[in-house]
Amino acid sequence: DFTQSGDTDIIRAVADVQWESTWGVGAFGAVYGRFAEAGDDNDITDYGLLLQAGYLLSPSWEVFGRYGVIFFDNKVSGEDTFPEIVAGVSYYLGPKGSYKNSAKITVDAVYLPNGFPTNQTGLGIVADDDDQVVVRAQFILSL
Questions:
Q1: Helix (H) or strand (E) holding 107
Q2: What is the CA 67 to chain-centroid distance, rounded?
Q3: Which site among 16, 36, 96, 142 is 20 to 30 Å from 103 CA-CA?
Q4: pLDDT for 45-99, tens place per residue?
Q5: Residue 84, pLDDT score
Q6: Which residues contact 114 (CB under 8 A, 6 or more apart)?
Q7: Rounded distance, CA 40 to CA 48, Å?
Q8: For the whole model, what pTM was predicted?
Q9: What is the CA radius of gyration of the chain?
Q10: Lowest mean pLDDT: which of 4-18, 28-42, 51-65?
Q11: Contact of 130 with 140, CB cutoff 8 Å
């Protein structure tokens, strides 16, 4: 994505890869970048990484873990690195989980050892310098 506003140019980029086995193991990885050029040597380069792995215990139950980290070019709230550690479980509805991602319940716990610099109310995260633990539950139904 390329966005230009006044003297500021912003480029956002993402690259990801996903792999799933026939025996229930899945993995996902992504790299994110934001590059802003505001003139007068006010360049900013922020990037993030995400790694996730999951395992189908049965056709209906999946456990997963995720590690993500954001690296800000400039310190925000005294930090420039914000990691996220997540563990969770999903239950797929329908006979033997046949509805897959169209009908599922997910519960996860998120640990933010450095807190987070901004409110992410849709995710249950508040701006805070202290470490945070967030427990979330979600029901998805796609018709």
A1: strand 103-112
A2: 8
A3: 16
A4: 999 999 999 999 999 999 999 999 999 887 776 788 999 999 999 999 999 999 9
A5: 95
A6: 79, 81, 82, 83, 129, 131
A7: 25
A8: 0.85
A9: 18
A10: 28-42
A11: no
| Integer Cα distance of 138 and 90 in angstroms | 9
- Percent of the chain surpassing pLDDT 70: 97
Phi and psi angles of residue 96, each rounded to the nearest 5 degrees, phi first: 55, 40
User: Vertex 109, ends 106 and 110: CA angle to 5°?
Assistant: 120
Q: Which amino acid is at 6?
A: G
Helix (H) or strand (E) segment spanning residue 91: strand 79-92
Pick 62 or 122 by higher pLDDT: 62
Token pair for 65: 């873990």
Asked whether 91 and 110 are in contact (CB, 8 A), the reply is no
Which two tokens mark 57? Answer: 């215990």
Residue 77 has a pLDDT of 67
Given the structure tokens 């996903």, which residue do they identify? Answer: 18
